[in-house]
Amino acid sequence: MAQVSDTEPDTGVSIQDTDAGQYTSPDKRIRHNKMKRNNRLESASYFNQVMIILSGSVISTALLRRFRLPPVLGYLIVGLLIGPYALQLVPGPDDLHFLSEFGLVFLLFSLGLEFSLARMTALRHTVFGLGSAQVALCSLFFWSVLHYVFGMSSEASLITAGALGLSSTAIVTQELTRWNELNSVHGHSAIGILLFQDLAAVLFLIMVPALAGTSDHSFSLAIGLIILKGFVLFIAMLATGKWLMPFIFHEVSKTRSEELFVMTVLLVVLTAAWITHAIGLSMALGAFIAGMMLGESHFKHQIEADIRPFRDILLGLFFVTVGMQLDYQVLISNLHWVVLGSLGLIASKGIMISLLASMLGKDRSSALRTGLVLAQGGEFGFALLTLALANQLLKPGLASLIVAIIVVSIAVTPFLIRFNSRISLMILPDKPFEPSMPHDTRELAEATSELEGHIIVCGFGRVGQTVARFMKKENLPLLALDNDPIRVQEAAGGGENIFYGDSSSRKVLEATGVSRARLIVVTVNEYEQSLAIIRAIRDLNQQVPVVVRTRDDSHLEDLKRAGATEVIPEALEGSLMLVTHVMSQMHIPFRRIARMVQTVRQQRYQLLHGYFHGGHSQLIDKQGNPLLRLHPVQVSPTCFAHNKTIADLKLSQVEILNVHRKNAVIESPDNNFIIQSGDTLILQGMADHIEQAESRLYGG
Question: CA-based, 20 to 30 A from 567: which of 9, 238, 250, 370?
Fold first, then answer.
């Protein structure tokens, strides 16, 4: 029985015992063992890479969330540190690229669920009009600068211009979703442009071998094949999504198996991505179309909930691989060029997109916010630059510099998207310019020309429809506006007097007869959108009453200052209704209850402002602004506040709502009220202001 030679560890096991006589010589056995050992080492290495990435991502995300910074920055920093240009803990992004790209696939699929076929039809002018104009103008501008100013060749300038002209689909859609701006006017414009950019990226990838002279087909033939493939794919997926997918998910849901449902969702997403990848298109584009096909089914919300964990984890891995593209030595040695290039890219691209959006019908504020959102470079730029390097169209040093510029612009993007509204208000503090009335607005004006003394409802969701039902019972004339084409179609089919339009557009409001309206009710969800609608209304009519619905009282005073006549916070009104029922059950006279509730409303819900927060309470709103909170402070004999008046304490940033003294409660004490030992002060204010006030009360 042959034994293993000295070149391998002696296991004492014969060839026949191990592999049933498959090997006939010790040399073959040795080669086989080496192959198995190499495979194990590769598997262990791959596992180690994933562990390093996950560990770094967890630590960085936890730290950044503590400082209220976007987690995307953490992923980029982790990629930079562990990548091949720094600590070299992970050799490079190539091994992980295919897996990380699935993050983009799941992101686009979930985005497709939000943008159904009807909504995409409404966005067709944005996708093919504004999108094509953006890609053409930005590419032409960057090509001219690179070719004539910096002296790059025409071919290198064209590929680099394409890389800079594309924006980051991943970070823009993630941050717009995070700040609930996906369905805003600038959110729709940004998504429409990004969709066309995904198509343009495929064309740029085809151009690289054609420019290098290594393509097997002519450029025009390749473009024609891509268009034909895309059209056939869209029709096939449209038919599949309309007839086959609902049947499949209906049958799967009848099994009541969560595992089977999740596996089916994953199979659908990956199959769509595989099909588009197989025919030479973007995997993300196929996932988006698949999501769009399922966007109108009643399985939409369950599907979205099931894929969210996979999407978020893989998307984090995607951003880590983006960070690994950055060579810190290039960043340091060419820091001035990287900073100037990033600023130039963001400024020039933002301005061009803003001008195009304004010229094609968007108001100046929405156009500027669209430009801010899309001012960065994109992840498709890395693929273009890598392919250009492989075809020797770019020098390695120049490619590294451009990659650094794109990565830095991506790192800045979360802040641009988070504060795009504030930046817009800083740049455009005056009334926004709006273009001449488009054709559909003229039709709206004609349809509403006979209305007089009517009610306009801005936003026709659940609240807006409730208002409309009560108004119809009283036979009051009413007109509704909404920017959801499906809702408009459904409601119009049900006999509602509703029109598709942006309620923050002065031209749309003017067409609805806002100058003749008796009352305007704003029921949209988002504070920024409500603020824009109120300002547009007040530009046109200073007298009409405006009733605004909000979720809570965090922006009540801001909305009042903007021109709202009444602001109705849902959370506080729900609390008042509950109190009314509770007090009724306690047999308190109804007139007394009504008087108390009316007093609270007249005082702008002052009694209900703020509340005692728990461990899971939300301390900031969706815009990142801190919320009011209540906090009790008990005064002891050693406290600075003992035997001091409220005026002596000089608590300018918090308010003492009441003082609990033994069994009594002193409401709204004045400045001459003397605080005594044993008193419990109820403070109202922001979290950091309350901490400062507490330190003042205790230590002076």
Answer: 370
